[in-house]
Design goal:
Helices cover 28% and strands 25% of the residues. It is of the alpha/beta class. The protein has two domains: 4-31 and 282-412, Lyase, Ornithine Decarboxylase, Chain A, domain 1 (Beta Barrel); 103-274, TIM Barrel (Alpha-Beta Barrel), CATH 3.20.20.10. Strands 4, 14, 15, 16, 17, 18, 19, 20 and 21 form a nine-stranded mixed β-sheet that branches. It has an eight-stranded parallel β-barrel with strand order 5-6-7-8-9-11-12-13, surrounded by five helices. A three-stranded antiparallel β-sheet has the order 1-2-3. The termini are far apart. The protein binds ligand LLP. The site of ligand LLP has 20 residues, from helix 10 and helix 11.
Length: 421
């Protein structure tokens, strides 16, 4: 459920009509609903109430500081994958002990940064990384809590670009080698082993692969404890999928995901950490765009928008589906027509949807891309020197720009022409 509904024939974000925001900030723009973000966080947090747990929002999904602040105010922890994300989380007041640091190639500089600023745990991805972290921690005279990310070699049955738990993926250490790797970690004075970490992929729409992975983690917990390790925290990652196509997709609910966790690992007495990103932010955001032109091609009609692949890259990058709806509610009974929905960027890959059946729209109309709150703004670029589009946050009947559109001068003045030119 989200808070984007038609009221009096016009799509609203909570209590704000979207044309009102378009008038104030121009198009295209992203708009997020505070109530939806809060609701989605609470779905996980409430479902795990009663077990010791921390819901660490995966900052990569949407890292705007206003979004982070909403979640931090509800007691969320943060899962970060770079020094930059760590800095964002700290900037909104999240203490280091509520931040976990994941990611496959942490640099020495990032390690020093989070050790100096405080960190709940670092999820280690390889032995060389473990040795590097030990050196950095020892040089700084500290001991850092760590988990090792294990790769359970399960098929997450999701898009190949966002599947992470197969042996062929670059993530984690093979679960069969865990015993050896944990023994090594325990012998390093700068590290303190506290748990196990697993994350098998993103946009999972079936609980079975999670169940398989969590069961393996449960087995490994017993084994590592028997080998003398104090395993007291399980970080089970993120990855729960959302309905992008609401008419025919019904992914499992957060409560079902959390029940599965309790069933598979609840008896171990470990603190549970989860790292949901998409489920919290995805359906809490829209991208609003204006129709620049309608163009009839040889055998199809093109709907040309003022947003493009640089603003929302998911369709080009993963062939992903986003619902595209007119901001003015179509009159009932109107026949939908097929359109190729495209942006103005100079490549054919700049296509949001092919032969999409849509109610007819006209030049100047506003359309909304649903499910754009996660991996939308964060993956945008200035390709074609198109300014990053603004982000707007709605709270009940108020809205605020939470990232402004840069001017052309701001963009081009970042370039530096060397003195010899
Ligand atoms: N934890 C780790 C270690 C991750 O790598 C990820 C996502 C998450 C948590 C959060 O997963 P979520 O709950 O959001 O599924 N750009 C892609 C998605 C990449 C996901 C990468 N890792 C997309 O637009 O679909």
């Amino acid at each position: 459920m989200d808070h984007f509904q038609y009221l009096d024939g016009v799509l609203h974000a909570e209590g704000v009509a979207l044309p009102e925001i378009a008038l104030a900030v121009g198009t295209p723009f992203y708009v997020y609903s505070t109530a939806t973000l809060e609701r989605h966080f609470r779905l996980f947090d409430d479902a795990l109430a009663g077990s010791e747990h921390l819901v660490c929002y995966a900052v990569k999904a949407n890292s705007n500081q206003a979004v982070l602040k909403i979640l931090a105010n509800l007691g969320a922890g943060m899962d970060v994958v770079s020094g930059g994300e760590y800095a964002r989380a700290r900037a909104v007041g999240v203490p280091g002990e509520r931040i976990v640091f994941s990611g496959v190639g942490k640099t020495r500089a990032e390690m020093s940064q989070v050790l100096a600023g405080g960190i709940r745990q670092i999820n280690l991805e390889s032995e060389p990384e473990m040795e590097l972290l030990n050196r950095v921690a020892s040089d700084m005279g500290v001991t850092v809590p760590v988990s090792v990310r294990v790769n359970p070699d399960v098929d997450a049955k999701t898009h190949e670009k966002i599947s992470t738990g197969k042996a062929e993926n670059k993530f984690g250490i093979p679960i069969g080698r865990a015993s050896e790797v944990y023994a090594k970690a325990a012998a390093l004075p700068g590290l303190q082993v506290v748990g196990i970490d697993v994350h098998i992929g993103s946009q999972l729409t079936d609980l079975a692969p999670f169940g398989e992975a969590f069961e393996m983690v449960a087995g490994l917990t017993g084994q590592l404890r028997a080998e003398g390790h104090d395993i007291r925290r399980l970080d089970l990652g993120g990855g729960l999928g959302i309905p992008y196509q609401r008419s025919n997709e019904v992914p499992p609910l957060p409560v079902e995901f959390c029940e599965l966790i309790k069933r598979k690992v609840g008896h171990l007495g470990c603190e549970i950490v989860i790292e949901p990103g998409r489920l919290i932010a995805g359906n809490a955001g829209l991208m609003i765009s204006r129709v620049t032109n309608l163009k009839s091609g040889e055998d199809r009609s093109f709907l040309i928008l003022d947003s493009a692949m640089n603003d929302l890259v998911r369709p080009s990058m993963y062939s992903s589906f986003h619902e595209i709806v007119p901001v003015v509610e179509p009159v009932p009974g109107v026949e939908p027509e097929p359109f190729d929905v495209v942006g103005p960027v100079c490549e054919s890959g700049d296509t949001f949807a092919k032969e999409r059946l849509m109610p007819p729209v006209e030049q100047g109309d506003l359309v909304a891309f649903r499910s754009a709150g996660a991996y939308g703004a964060v993956m945008s670029s200035e390709y074609n020197t198109r300014p990053l589009i603004p982000e707007v946050l709605v709270h009940e009947d108020q809205f605020a720009v939470i990232r402004a559109r840069p001017t052309f001068d701001e963009i081009i003045n970042r370039d530096i022409i060397p003195a010899w030119l």
